[in-house]
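Batch 3, record 17
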Amino acid sequence: MKGIIFNLVEETVSTEYGDDTWDSLLEAADVEGSYTSLGNYDDAEIHRLVDAGSEALDVPAKDLTEWLGRDALLRLAARYPHFFAPHASTRPFLLTLNDVIHPEVRKVHPDSQPPDFDFSGADPRVLVMTYRSARRLCALAEGMVRGAAEFYGEQVAVTHDVCMLHGADRCELTCTFEPTGEADDAAGVGR
Amino acid sequence: MQQASAADLTARVALLERRLERERSARRTAEEIGERATSELFEAVQNLQRAQAEIQGRADQARTVTELAREVRRELDLDGLLQRAARGLGEALGADSCTVRLTAGDRATALARWARPGSGCDGSAGTPLGDPAAELAGGSPAGRWASTRAATPVLVGEQLVGWLELESSQPRSWTERDVAIAEGLARELGAAVSQARVYADQQATVERLRELDLAKTEFVSTVSHELRTPLTSITGYLEMLLEEALGELTPHQVKALTVIDRNAQRLQLLIGDLLTLSGVDAGAFRLDLAPVHLGTVVADACAAVRPLLERRVLDIAVEVPDDLGVVHGDGTQLERVVSNLLTNAVKFTPDGGRIRVAAADDEHGVSLSVADTGCGIPLDEQDRLFTRFFRSTISQEQEIQGSGLGLAITKAIVDGHGGGVDVESAPAAGTTVTVRLPRHPPAAGVA
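Prediction for the assembled complex:
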């Protein structure tokens, strides 16, 4: 897992709950926590951190992960606006993941392994994203989809019936978008 | 409160220290990664530069070989191209001498040698390598590269046809570039040698054909002359016999002698045609120029072909204006032209047909045409009409007699006058042959 994800998580947790909480999460998760965006870290560390956070904050691990994803996406949008600016809505932005964004990530971080998504859905309002990754961080991906919708001012309904966390060999995220000016209402921790 | 604050402060400091330690550790990791990336980048750039230099080196080699090959191929003569190869390669590689030796099979050994002036290798043919493959060990599998001598084989296909040999008065190390250029030129040289040999063979073939053609022309000329002499004697006595100068003839004898006379005249015409064409081939065909009235020429030609018209039913019209301009030409040869055309028209026009002879002034001189309503010439044969001994399929099918020389001679005579001949013909509709003559023939080819 690339260090930048850990940096984003640290920022989110520290901003929302303070440095102390982050410090205690590191201790509870028994990780060193010296993350640099250039580094590559054991995938297990993110799971240990989520588990520690889930216990400390009393939030289900999946909800916490999704919230971290949504927040990370908004932070990425602030840090890398040029990936977001060319698109007017979430669907076309998500469709550039495999062809533009992840190849760019590989350029800067040759040892990174961003997931590849399969996309389908003929209806322009619907996008079915198939996620396959040994990290099984589908909730992070789902949170990022929600974060992207929030960024573009859209409302999104995500159904996640096929899931690796429930024994499937892949996750299928069916995202249905509705443009709205009140997208903020749909955001937040949990569902 | 103070104790609590002190405890808070201690905790705060501890937290900050942990954060600081994490930040330091992260920085060290980032620096290590940065250093590693920089080193990898440096190596990548160096690899790229090496690759670029190699590509440029190869391009330079290819360009050098191409230039040398172009220089070599300018020469079609084998010795000349070997000389160019020796000089070109020797200079390109900075050698003191370069020798090209062809040794293949039944071909004679060819040798070309270049030596750098002042190198001490000039003047003599050096000490050639008997068998470079045996005498020089080492080097690439194809060539032999020792410190002062080097050689690379010249191949035509799979066959070894010779060696490119290089010499250096001082020991030197031949670079990969040297080897690549020498081997590249050796390959090109193999192809150039083949090409030069094919060219030489072709030249020899052309020369042999020329000699054969000349021998044939001389043969025809000699035979024709030899035939003409006895024929003159035969026709002389025939004339005397027919004039009954040697005694009275019975009607049967007259008939037989007339047949003999007719065929003797045909032989005479044929021999005359052959001699004319021999003269044209030998460049000895001369025109006897004088002012000529084409009206007279046409009338004489008509008179000459009159015997052919006996027992034929043909409508012959002659349309030559009285005030037709005079041309400078050979009257006898022009009469031959007109009578050839008229003879053809008579032969190829069935009874009941029409023949029209017309002449008129035109902007360049005079044009004269002979038009018939005969059987015409098949389209696919029209481009061979002026070829000697060419006989159309119609003349063969209808057994129309002729040597196939008439139009060839007509064209030779008209060409000699600086004029031209056009034929328009359509099968079953007839043929029109038009001769255009300038008023004054050009100086060349005129006596």
